[in-house]
From TrEMBL:
Keywords: NAD, Transferase. It is an enzyme of class 2 (transferase). This is Probable RNA 2'-phosphotransferase. It comes from Nonomuraea endophytica. Gene3D superfamilies: 3.20.170.30, RNA 2'-phosphotransferase, Tpt1/KptA family, N-terminal domain. PANTHER family: PUTATIVE PHOSPHOTRANSFERASE, TRNA 2'-PHOSPHOTRANSFERASE 1. The keyword Cytoplasm does not apply.
Amino acid sequence: MDERRLVRVSKYQSKHLRHEPGRIGLELDPNGWTDIGTFLAAATAHGFPITGDELDAAVAQNDKRRFTVDDGRIRANQGHSIPVDLDLPVATPPEILFHGTVARVLPAIRAEGLRPMNRHHVHLSPDRETARRVGARRGRPVILVVDSAAMHASGHDFHLTANGVWLAATVPPVYIRFPD
């Protein structure tokens, strides 16, 4: 499959498994899963046919590993704007985590911390490079360092997704180290 088609399939999957399943008549279970055959049929009925091989390639080759396939089902690993319970256990985070953003939102983050906005959780990266790539999607990236150990010790819960993204309900400003 060519790269452009792979990107289109991946974006289609993201849109309908994270944000708008009803747009194509798809229903996700409470944990965000749907049957692969049901998803492929819904995509075809909606005018965007996807083959099983294309779906497999989009899952396997996605650099962010956004999707999990298990027992004939598929779901997005995180980033939902619709109600789902990913049923992820509470996990102990590493000492620090990172968040990529852009300079124009720093005043709000300094005042309010990191908030999930229209998502269920704040997404945190285990390394600077991943955070840099995330921040670069919106402009020149700014990398924030989160004192996740102190946050966890203060009673904040963290969850680790199947693709290595750390999730937190919010990150209060006191736990964020801002660039100079």
